[in-house]
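Aim 2 progress. For ArsR family transcriptional regulator, the working sequence is reproduced below.
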Amino acid sequence: MFCVERVIYGAAMGRRRDIILLLHTEGPMPLAKLRDALKMSASTLLFELSALEKLGVVKREGSLVFLTELGERVASIISTVEPLKSLSFLSLAGLRPLMVWLLMSPLLPLAAATLLAGWVTALVVGSFLSPPLSMIYVMYVGHYLPSLLSLSPPLSLIVSLISVAGLLLGIYSASRRRLGLSKIVAGLFPLAIYPTVHLALVWLAQTFELSYLVAISQVLLFVSLLLTATVFATVYSIEMGATYETSLIRSLLAFFVVPALLYLAPLR
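Predicted structure tokens for this construct:
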């Protein structure tokens, strides 16, 4: 952790930050083109590149300059401050500063294990309610939610657990095993905490006759899907070295657009 922080601080100093972000955006570049784009003298550019090479962030092959795998990660983390300057809603919703801290924290495995245990517990409890709460793909159905399905409690539990396991394994495989379980769960935390929040709101609505809480929970369902898309895009971009914008488009499609369309087309 200390080593990564040292690299980030070293790479973010002065013009090094500009070099890294440009290579992150444009990909490998010849020295001459890099110098022209940054409007730097040749001596200054070579000095900064030498420092970045010592940090293991960039590599040169002849006149071509490119980021290493570590460099891609560092560039993605450094770009965290950019959304804060423009106050982009979806970037802020991705909670990049918080997720950067969490992904680098030694508490991540414990936090992820607690989150996963709470997720599974809520699904187990929800599956034996009337009507049962089920999870299909990334969609929650039943128990005062849209798209009510007539599933028996045991079947509801089986479907929900298969959905969770399939989602985690699918992301792990799609990332070519570069995203560990703890980081995947961290990226899915809005989706993971929703069933607990929903069950609590429904219980309060029934206990104190506050029916509007059910409507609020149904709205929060779509909010949780949107937040899941943005948070997962943040984790993916940081860990895989991809741009946030590209990751966000894919995440929105998988976690928000497709589920929203399915909710709007009632299951029969």
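The radius of gyration is 22 Å. This observation will guide construct design in the next reporting period.
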